[in-house]
Amino acid sequence: MKVFQHETRLRTAGGLSVRDITDEVNEAVRTSGVKDGIACVYSPHTTCCVRVNEFESGFFDDFAAMLRRLVPAETYYAHDDWDKRTENICPEDMDVGNGHSHCMAMLLGTAGESVPIRDGVLQLGQWQRVLFIELDRERDRRWIVQVVGT
Q1: CB of 129 within 8 A of CB of 89?
Q2: CATH number reported for the structural domain that contains residue 100 in this entry
Q3: What is the largest CA-CA distance in the chain?
Q4: 28 burial class (0-12, 13-18, 19+ CB within 10 angstroms)?
Q5: Mind listing the pLDDT tens digit for each residue in 70-92?
Q6: What is the count of structural domains for the chain?
Q7: For residues 18 and 143, is the Cβ–Cβ distance under 8 A?
Q8: Counting C-beta atoms within 10 Å of the first and last residue's C-beta, which end of the chain has fewer, N or C?
Q9: pLDDT in tens, 26-46
Q10: d(CA 43, CA 25)
Q11: Cβ(64)–Cβ(140) under 8 Å?
Q12: What is the pTM of this model?
């Protein structure tokens, strides 16, 4: 059994930006030497996530519009109320609230995806891509891929 891990650091554009990281995940799989197994791609941040879907501009427009309807930035969030909030305080969050970003992340589910590997290739569908989605403002971020298998 092999275990390989690779971390990538990046600066996001912010504001519901989506980056296709499929080629970088494929490169990690090639480097790992794993022929059959699984690639777990994970974001260690609470206001961004990794998802598998199409990389298509119309979909991104629809997706962003839907999230903004469901979780508008202009609404009151206790997370952004500095008269009430006492835990997990980051000074830069005090300038611009991000309660809506946390709520969006909870709607999208877990922070990562697991993709099977067969014959050294990610088993994605025809249009599927691995996407890194920023739900907050521009920030320094990282994502991790761990490849496990034989």
Answers
A1: no
A2: 2.60.120.460
A3: 55
A4: buried
A5: 999 999 999 999 899 888 887 77
A6: 1
A7: no
A8: N
A9: 999 999 999 999 999 999 999
A10: 13
A11: no
A12: 0.93
